[in-house]
Amino acid sequence: MTRALQVVPWFLEPFLIAGWTLLFFLIATAQRRSVSGNLRAMHPNWGPVRGCWGAWRVFWNFSVTLVDAQRCDTGTGEVDWRVEGLEHMENLANRKDGCIILTAHMGNYDLAAPMFASRFNRTLYTVRAPEREAATQRLRELELRRKEQLYPNFRSLCNRDGNMLGIELARLLGEGHIVAVQGDRVMFDVSPMEVEVEPGLRMRLPKGPLFLARATHAPCFPLFITREGWRRYRVTVHPPIQLPQRRRGNEAEAAEIWAAAVFETAKLHWHQWFVFEPLLTRVASAERRNET
Question: Environment class of residue 189 by beta-carbon count within 10 Å: exposed (0-12), middle (13-18) or buried (19+)?
Fold first, then answer.
């Protein structure tokens, strides 16, 4: 794709993206069912047909954002940005203490993080899950190293099994850096937690980001990127999450606040929520009564 973008004119993109998206939509059966299942759990009045249509929109938007990112990386295109919540962005940029950015896998995270790192007076560390294929991981690491050379305040860390990443992130926060984490990816050996985000609707989230925020007491700013149109994106920055005081053995209230920050944006922009694993489960009323 990176080679093709050097010669393919922009007006052919919609046709090529549609064709390749359809191919992967048909091949990626497990991912298609996971996306459709998440959307139908989120919208209980949706039937199978609408769930499949919603999954297609997710695949389509994912493809478009991927091409946009590659256009910028190859110097064959640019995107426009709009910031909502600029006062919170300035607060985040000007603070001296370490801060956490809570985001989700949506919009164009890979494209936004390096560029907005240049606005900060300290280093922004992003946490990534490794690619499933070794060859893809090597290609991704080359891309990240190039971005780190272009943006000195941008660094990327990979969440590998056994690398004690939590301790390293706590150290970076203690030194006053910014750490960006995705709060909606439960992959590989990540420890999950289940939180009820709506009556009868449970969401699986990774425990690590919340535990990091609780252990370090670092201010946590929800920040989400969404696509608004042809190579136009919006960055929405919210005020810091107010988590309750930590009590031993009782994290339910904090987990609900944390999960709500992710779920509310995911539900509003469901067609750009690029999570291809089953995260949402609708629980029957009888089961909820039994558990109570």
Answer: exposed
